[in-house]
Structures are given as structure tokens and as C-alpha cells.
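Posting this for the archive.
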Amino acid sequence: TRDELVSIERLSFWTLSAACILQFLSQLFLNASMLLPLRTCVRRLGFWELYIVRTGGLLVGSLVPIAGGVAVRLAYLRQRGVTYADFTWATLLSNVLALAAAASVALFGTAAVWIVVGPPPAVVLAVAGGVFMLSVAALVVFESIPALTRRSKLRKWAWLSNMPGLFVNRPMTSGVFAHSVLRHALNFVTYGLLTQALAGDFLTGGVV
């Protein structure tokens, strides 16, 4: 919109350059967080190989908004031997850990705002705490699915019947979580930097 263009014009060259570099680094950490689970299925899947596939998926997704990018990744990885169950498991694991990482960074940012500025509105505290608890619950449920399907009637479903063979490797999940934290921390700094340039409020911009 016109207002957004006006806001961009107010930003300096160095601010825009820093924001672009930070977002590029954020995408690299996102790529790494998605690569680790997939390498349990395709050990020789390359970092830049997945990055190119994801970039192509983003371009297709801009033309076909509903799952266009996911379809590109799935089509390519199927050629590399990844099953539907493996792909779904890796995607869900990455997203669940990304949610937990985002909640952790949000809690850190909210605490920083509290210390520097003062107590934030109750709704902000409620949202930050609620998202964190939701992410913890989602991670617990996700880790429990393979064990549940070994003994329950859930195995009669075709997709879930493959779940007992999947597992959550602690070093791998720690790596995914760490990369996701770094990704969201870079996003925090990016939006904080832009808000600082436009409104002089780094912390609030990062949290929002």
C-alpha cells in the first residue's frame, strides 16, 4: 500500500541492508532446522540442495498460495526416496519445535520489555505464556504418538501405522530447536531494528 511504501522510503540504506542480511541469515537457519529431520530419511540431502528446493517452493507458493511450496518439496523429496509418512513427520517436527522456539524468544523479549520499560499489558503476558504452554503440550503429544500407535487402535489408519517406526532423536531435536531459536532471534532483531528506525522502540518491535 501507499503507507507501506512511505514507511520504506523513511528507512536508510544501511537499515534496509541490515534487515535484508538478517533475514537471509534467518532463512539459512530455517533451512538447517528443516534439513536435520529430513536427513534421518535421506542422509545425503545437501544444505544448498534443500535451500534451492525451498526457494522454488516459495516462488510456486506465491502463485499457488494453498500448499504450493509444500507440494514442490514433497514432489522433489519423493524422488529422493522420502515417504509421505517421513515427510509429514519431518515437517510436523520442524513446525512444533519452531513454535516452541518462537515462544521462548517471545518470553525472553517480554521479560526484556518488563525490565526496561515496565510491566507489559496483561494480554501480552497471557498470549506469550499461552503460546509457550501450547508449544510444550504440542511437543509432548508429538513425542508420544509413535509409542501410542504401537499399542492402540490408531494403527488401523494407514498413515499412522507407519508412526511406530519413526522416532525423536534428542541430539537432532536439540539441533532443530537451537537453529529455530537463532532464526526467531534474528527475526526479533530485524523487526526491532525496523521499528527502532521508524518509531524509536526496538524491544516492542521485536516482540510484536
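The two ends are 20 Å apart (CA to CA). Residues 109 and 207 are 6 Å apart (CA to CA).
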